[in-house]
């Protein structure tokens, strides 16, 4: 789901927010355009690039919040999100163009609605307008990566409170040391979901279609073999 929104948002940016800065007169001998059509990076810039069309070179700038992707092949849209196109060591980006709701015109950001025990909400910004979003069940928004992530990997999230579940102490060996094993536990009220615990970290998972979680075996089995009581899964 999250990848779908990423693709959709980049497409919107491609259609509406690409900025042309200047135009170089057509010249087949233009040193910039080594190919008839293509993209070329601009040194010391994260979001500027040169687009060559029929040997005409045009300096372009990605929409605020996006970076130029040096691996993009013409005519594919060459701008992407910083989480997909890092800019370390490449230079700087244009000054931010914030709005009342968004720090950049495009991107994924922490939502003011989110709390440390309700970590799944985030904000998608499109042309400076904010859309409130929710991560898939059991995932929390990670502001550092701009993605939905396991709650225990998000420092600002209280994973146990968010999931409503804490992993029991794992079994121990003969010396009393915790065993390094994965143990699955029932999700109360919905037999298609379950909690998987490893090293004290709880993660909400779901069975494949046609299967349901069997607490006796601790695994997903044919749904017809499980007496299901279905209530809404956590959001």
UniProtKB/TrEMBL annotation:
This is Chitin-binding type-2 domain-containing protein. The keyword Kinase does not apply. Pfam families: CBM_14. Keywords: Chitin-binding, Disulfide bond, Glycoprotein, Repeat, Signal. Residues 1-17 form the signal peptide. Residues 30-89, 99-159, 164-230 form the Chitin-binding type-2 domain. InterPro entries: Chitin-bd_dom, Chitin-bd_dom_sf, Chitin_bind-dev_reg. It comes from the Eukaryota. Gene3D superfamilies: Chitin binding domain. SUPFAM superfamilies: Invertebrate chitin-binding proteins. GO terms for molecular function: chitin binding. GO terms for cellular component: extracellular region. It comes from Mythimna separata (Oriental armyworm).
């Amino acid at each position: 789901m999250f990848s779908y929104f990423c693709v959709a948002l980049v497409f919107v940016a491609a259609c509406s927010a690409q900025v042309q800065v200047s135009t170089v007169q057509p010249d087949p001998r233009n040193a910039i355009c080594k190919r008839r059509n293509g993209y070329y990076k601009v040194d010391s810039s994260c979001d500027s690039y040169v687009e060559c069309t029929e040997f005409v070179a045009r300096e372009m700038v990605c929409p605020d919040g996006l970076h130029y992707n040096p691996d993009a092949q013409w005519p594919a849209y060459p701008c992407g999100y910083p989480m997909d196109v890092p800019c370390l060591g490449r230079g700087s980006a244009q000054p931010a163009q914030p709005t009342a709701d968004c720090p950049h015109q495009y991107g994924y950001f922490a939502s003011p609605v989110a709390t440390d025990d309700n970590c799944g909400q985030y904000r998608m910004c499109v042309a400076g307008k904010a859309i409130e979003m929710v991560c898939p069940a059991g995932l929390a928004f990670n502001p550092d990566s701009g993605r939905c992530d396991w709650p225990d990997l998000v420092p600002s999230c209280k994973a146990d409170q968010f999931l409503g579940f804490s992993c029991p102490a794992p079994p121990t060996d003969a010396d009393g040391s915790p065993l390094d094993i994965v143990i699955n536990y029932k999700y109360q009220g919905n037999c298609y979901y379950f909690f998987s615990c490893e090293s004290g970290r709880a993660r909400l998972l779901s069975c494949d279609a046609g299967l349901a979680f069997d607490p006796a075996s601790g695994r997903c089995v044919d749904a017809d073999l499980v007496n299901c009581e279905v209530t809404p899964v956590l959001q």
